[in-house]
């Protein structure tokens, strides 16, 4: 059996499974999380919740800004006393830097439309 036929068979199985169990899973999920559901579910209520989320996030910026500067001060202190730095701490810093670089590269690839050269084929 070819790869395409195998993929089609798997997709058919998945579609059948979702058709059979999807509704009960949906009901179970809603029942487990009913404390998060707002009643009545109206457009006005959704707009209100969206505004509350936006302004709550906006209000949290000063706290996150302070936390950022505290973290930066800690990094500065570590840099000043780099002779006392342990190998484990240096390894964590290197891994963090590599992770940041990898996310940057992934963002660049996504920004170019998932191409590696920037040209669309």
Record the SSE blueprint.
Blueprint: H1 3-32, H2 43-59, H3 61-80, H4 87-111
Describe the structure.
With 121 residues, the protein is mainly α. It contains four helices and no strands. The chain has helices at residues 3-32, 43-59, 61-80, 87-111. The longest helix is centred in the N-terminal third of the chain and has 30 residues, at 3-32.
Order of helices and strands: HHHH
Major sheet size, sense and barrel closure:
none
Globally, the shape reads: extended
Structural class call reads mainly alpha
Unreliable segments of 5+ consecutive residues: none
* Strand count: 0
Q: How many helix segments? A: 4
Helix content: over 70%
Q: Which radius of gyration do the C-alpha atoms yield?
A: 25 Å
Mean pLDDT over the full residue set: 88
Distance between the termini: 30 Å
Strand residue percentage = under 5%
Name the descriptors:
121 residues, 4 helices, 76% helix, transport, ATP synthase, F0 complex, subunit G, mitochondrial, ATP_synth_F0_gsu_mt
């Amino acid at each position: 059996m070819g790869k395409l036929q195998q993929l089609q068979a798997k997709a058919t199985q998945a579609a059948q499974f979702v058709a059979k169990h999807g509704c009960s899973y949906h009901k179970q999920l809603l029942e487990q999380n009913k404390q998060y559901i707002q009643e009545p579910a109206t457009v006005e209520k959704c707009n209100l919740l969206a505004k509350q989320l936006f302004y709550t996030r906006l209000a949290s910026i000063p706290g996150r800004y302070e936390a950022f500067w505290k973290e930066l001060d800690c990094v500065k202190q570590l840099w000043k006393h780099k002779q006392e730095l342990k190998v484990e701490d240096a390894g964590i810093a290197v891994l963090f830097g590599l992770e940041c670089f990898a996310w940057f590269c992934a963002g660049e690839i996504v920004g170019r439309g998932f191409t590696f050269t920037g040209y669309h084929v």
